[in-house]
Design a protein that fits this description.
The protein has one domain: Spore Coat Polysaccharide Biosynthesis Protein SpsA, Chain A (Alpha-Beta Complex), CATH 3.90.550.10. A hairpin with a 7-residue loop joins strand 6 and strand 7 (127-131). The chain has 256 residues and is of the alpha/beta class. Helices cover 38% and strands 21% of the residues.
Length: 256
C-alpha cells in the first residue's frame, strides 16, 4: 500500500526541515512524498533541494491559498492513502505511518484518524495540550465534534469520489471535507488511539477573533450545503466553550 504524504508550504524555512525529516524517518517506506510550495521567497526551496532524493514530486508556483495548494497535491497523488502534513507539523515518531497502514490493511476502512499534540511556539519540547479525538459516532459533527485534520488519513478513492477541498470556505475547508466524507457520505472510519502529529499551538483559524468568527460561520455554511440541521447558537457554544476552557488552563499553567 502506497501512502501519499502532502506538505504545502510558503516561506517556511524555519520549520520545514523538521517536517521533511519526520516524513523520511518513517519506518514504513512505501511513501510518495509531495511538496507544494507557493513560490516561497525565503530559503524554503534551498532546504527542500537538500532532500530531493526523498521527494517524489515538487511544485513551486503561486496558488490561491493553502487549500488550493492541498488540492494540487491531491490531484497528482498516486498513493492508495492520502495524508496532509503542514510545513510546521511533525509526526510524533517513526511508527506513525506503519500503524496507520496496518489499520487500512487489516480493516475494510476508508479513513483512519488519531490524536494530535500542541507544543509551545517558543519551546517545541513543551506539550501544552493534547487533542484526544475519540471514537466517531454518527451525528457527532452537529454536536461540535470533528477529528483533527493533521491526523486525518483517507483513501485516495474518497477524494476521487467526493472531491477535494472547497477553497471558497478558506479557513474551514478541512472541516467541510471531513464532514462531507464522514457524516454526509458515511465513509467507514476508525480511530487510532494515540498521538500521530505534533503541531504548534495556534493555527490559522485561531490567530484572531476575526478568524475564529469567519471559521465558525463557514462551518455553518457547510452544514447548510449538505442540508444538515443544526442549532447555530448551541453548536457555537459547544465548539467555543472547550477552547475557552483550554485557553484559561494554559494561562494558569504559565503563571505557575
Amino acid at each position: 500500500m502506497k501512502v501519499s504524504i502532502i506538505t504545502v508550504c510558503f516561506n517556511s524555512d524555519k520549520t520545514i526541515e523538521k517536517t521533511i525529516q519526520s516524513v523520511i524517518s518513517q519506518k514504513y517506506k512505501n511513501i510518495e512524498y509531495i511538496i507544494i510550495d507557493g513560490n516561497s521567497s525565503d530559503n524554503t526551496s534551498k532546504i527542500i533541494s537538500k532532500y530531493s532524493e526523498y521527494i517524489s514530486k515538487y511544485i513551486s508556483e503561486p496558488d490561491a491559498g493553502i487549500y488550493d495548494a492541498m488540492n494540487k497535491g491531491i490531484n497528482c497523488a498516486e498513493g492508495d492513502v492520502v495524508a496532509i502534513l503542514n510545513s510546521d507539523d511533525f509526526y510524533t515518531d517513526k511508527n506513525v505511518i506503519s500503524d496507520v497502514v496496518e489499520l487500512f490493511t487489516n480493516q475494510k476502512v476508508d479513513i483512519v484518524y488519531g490524536d494530535i499534540e500542541y507544543f509551545n511556539q517558543s519551546h517545541e519540547d513543551t506539550i501544552v495540550r493534547v487533542w484526544v479525538a475519540g471514537e466517531y459516532k454518527r451525528g457527532s459533527f452537529v454536536r461540535g465534534w470533528h477529528p483533527p485534520h493533521p491526523a486525518f488519513f483517507a483513501k485516495k478513492s474518497m477524494y476521487n469520489k467526493y472531491g477535494g477541498f472547497d477553497i471558497s470556505l478558506n479557513i474551514s475547508a478541512d472541516f467541510d471535507l471531513m464532514l462531507r466524507f464522514m457524516d454526509f457520505n458515511k465513509a467507514f472510519s476508525l480511530y487510532l488511539n494515540r498521538s500521530l502529529v505534533q503541531m504548534c499551538a495556534g493555527g490559522e483559524s485561531g490567530k484572531s477573533i476575526k478568524n475564529i468568527f469567519i471559521g465558525n460561520m463557514n462551518i455553518l455554511k457547510s452544514f447548510r450545503k449538505y442540508n444538515m440541521k443544526v442549532n447555530p447558537l448551541l453548536y457555537l457554544l459547544r465548539r467555543l466553550l472547550p477552547k475557552v476552557i483550554a485557553s484559561i488552563q494554559l494561562k494558569i499553567k504559565r503563571t505557575k
